Amino acid sequence: MYKTVVTETRFTDFVGASLVGCNFSGARLVNQNTDSIGTNLTGSIIPDEPLIRSKLYNSILPNGTWGPIPSKNLVVNGDAEQNKLIANRTYLTGWIVSFPGRIIAMLVIFYISFLATAVPGLLSAHQSNDNIVSLNIENADSGQAIPSIMHGVILETNINRGDDGGLYAELIYNRAFQENGRSLDGWLIFGQASANINTDEPLSTALPAQMRFSINAQSNNISGFRNGGFAGINVAAQNYTASFFYRPLTNSYLPGNTLSIGFSDSTGQIIYAMQTVNVSKAPINQWYYFTFIITVVNAAPTSKNFFFIQFPSGSQGDFEFNLISCFPPTFKNRPNGARNDIAQVFSDLKPGCVRLPGGDDLEGLSIPERFIWNNTIGFLENRPGRRGRWIGYNTQGFGLLELLTFTEDIGATPILAVYAGYSVDGKAVPEDQLQPYIDEVINELDFLTASADSNKMGGLRKRLGRSQPFDIRYVEIGNEDFNGYGPQTYGYRWRDFYNALSQRFPNITFIATTTTSITTPPVVDDHNYQVPLFYIENFRRYENVPRPGPKVLVGEFAVINDDDSQMDNPWGSGRISFSSMKSAVAESVYRIGFERNSDIIIAGLYAPILQNVDITQWTPNLIVFNASSVLKTTSYLAQKIFAENLGNIILHSTATNSTMTHQSVQQGQEGDGKLGNLYFIATKNTDNNTLIVKLASVDSNDTIVKTQIHGSMASATGTAYILSAGPGVDPSKVANTMDNPNAVSIVTKSISSINGTWSITIPSWSVVVVTLPL
Ligand code: AHR
């Protein structure tokens, strides 16, 4: 039995809903990342309390106008189970909501009718025995175009040490002594020596503090210092390129002028590789740069290794070091480049687009700590870095050029996020002080896109080794300005940035982070971190966005909690460490929705992508790694089969069961995009005349899909890519983890069509992609 009380509701649940004349007075507010699209609130009374992390797109507002209202986010209190209102449904006009403890008759009537329409649909689908579906696909040579960038990711710097300590191949942690203010964090001193931070005669303005290593009396043993990397160093049989800046002080004495550098175990007793470096060229009291190769012949058995620099017995005096660096071979051999194994897995995902460099880390913890593009280019000794939004220090060694070069190397389209005068501390640049920040972005875009020969910034790019402009088609102005105090100032910030940038860069599509307090931008970014049921219930979310209107970039989304009862607080109890099969299926349902709404969705981006499992602030993530291995999560595998099999047009398709006919399927109703617990889309790659069918099942039983293609009688052999939890298994309990990295893998099966007819069994809780020549 269901209790006859609606206990909680919020605008998030009201996508496309009609809530005409409702009275929400007295509703409690929650602090959640919420939004709503296409809600009709004409005549409703909404309490005027300040809200955080919410937004409302294209809704009919209480006063009957279209457009944004200040963030609103409602919870109606009650004492029963938590149940949600469903999107796309017309609720009772004039509904009055009761508050703590009081339930009025009208609400009871409403809720009974709600149960009658909403819940049985879910239950019957789960319990259905009728799991034979007939799928009709109409072959065609034209149809709604699907953006080629459709399935992407956000690559946010700093989070989970995704760049420093992750994708950025640098092995040395705190290489320029910038962590924890200025410190020797991560450096261990051994032998008859001591070390401290010194700021006299620094290496550069950007790197103002160095290590002073002191051997006070003439030593009779080796001394030195070692660094354990970002939670370990992988020592493999290969060449490493190491370097440092070195300054011997007047009182220094180094027998033979030779240092020994290499890799050891944590005790220093086992040396895996060592290289001697003659530093006699370094003049007394002056900085001198040394670079050299360390060759490892036999790999170390674990990654609990250290990089060391050691002084011979008899050394004495003070020696200074800065920017101590060591790189393994990098992805595509780029200098200062990406870690090969992570980059390869990233590349194999075949993301259509990469949004960078954030996220919150674009904004920075405060205005001076924002992403300042020109601090991230050029010689490493001239990059000051900044305090990371998520953890420690952000060296920005993997700076703007490295990020964009990597994106280009993997064949993805960048979605460049630019700083828009608002930081994580909630402070905004006042409008009369905004111009320098706008100029900063103009210079950034000139730097990336202008001619190397006729533009000063383009010339700078060329001097840094890149003459060809980057292909920047999308620029997002800011990040999550629906948060905190963002909405209060985004109106002028968006307007001033957009007007200046769109005039100067007419070929770039600009993306707003919210429609709260701005008029219709070309594209708006929509973020969702939720439970699986949210994505399943919101399959038609974007079908209900009014057209015409801003296009939508789903710039961040992921299942972060597998417990469906936590829909109103996915950040709380049940937050997952690794995505499960249940998460992957729910995300795939949502992705099918993206493709189906290709007229309005430009792309959907999983977030975040990278996680150093030993230095984590946010879970789950798509690619998880430690110092020596890389994990493809369940969500990764699901996104991969979607991204690498992307059609360029949508084909009309309908699904029916034994009680339906294809002719009677209505747009937006059962049979269109979904039937019971099966979600689907048929698309075509017209370049190679291939049918691509994507299916996601949230059923606990297998579903047999019998397919008939109309307009192609071809008999052909194709491939099904199948990702499933396995029969009779709770899909929320199945996940690829560091301990069990291959719990789920992609299974391929051959599919044969005879005269355009073929069948496939879709396992319970699975994601399936079928490709078939037409
Ligand atoms: O993806 C992690 C964070 O989530 C991003 O930094 C921010 O944009 C969002 O709140």
UniProtKB/TrEMBL annotation:
Domain of life: Eukaryota
GO biological process, one term: L-arabinose metabolic process
Name of one Pfam family that matches: ASD1_dom
Limits of the Alpha-L-arabinofuranosidase C-terminal domain: 576-766
Reactions listed under catalytic activity: Hydrolysis of terminal non-reducing alpha-L-arabinofuranoside residues in alpha-L-arabinosides
Protein name according to UniProt: non-reducing end alpha-L-arabinofuranosidase
GO MF annotation list: alpha-L-arabinofuranosidase activity
Keywords of this entry: Glycoprotein, Hydrolase, Membrane, Signal, Transmembrane, Transmembrane helix
